[in-house]
User: Which sequence fits this backbone?
């Protein structure tokens, strides 16, 4: 199992956190996503077929900005 951490910008409330978490957990292969509003960070545990690029794209498609 792999683990990825990413900074996510544009989150301002619990609804944003829920949107990011749902977007990440909808990526096939993601086992768990923890999103922290105060730290502007997500930590994702995943395995194939998920990739870091897919995780980043899912967050961007949800309307947020990602930095590694």
Assistant:
């Amino acid at each position: 199992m792999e683990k990825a951490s990413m900074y996510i910008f544009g989150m301002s409330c619990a609804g944003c956190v829920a949107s990011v978490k749902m977007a990440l957990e909808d990526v096939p292969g993601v086992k768990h996503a923890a999103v922290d509003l105060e730290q502007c960070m997500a930590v994702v545990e995943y395995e194939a077929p998920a990739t870091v690029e897919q995780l980043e794209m899912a967050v961007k498609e949800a309307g947020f900005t990602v930095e590694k």
In short: The beta strands are 2-9, 30-36, 41-46, 65-67. The chain has a mean pLDDT of 97. The longest strand covers residues 2-9.
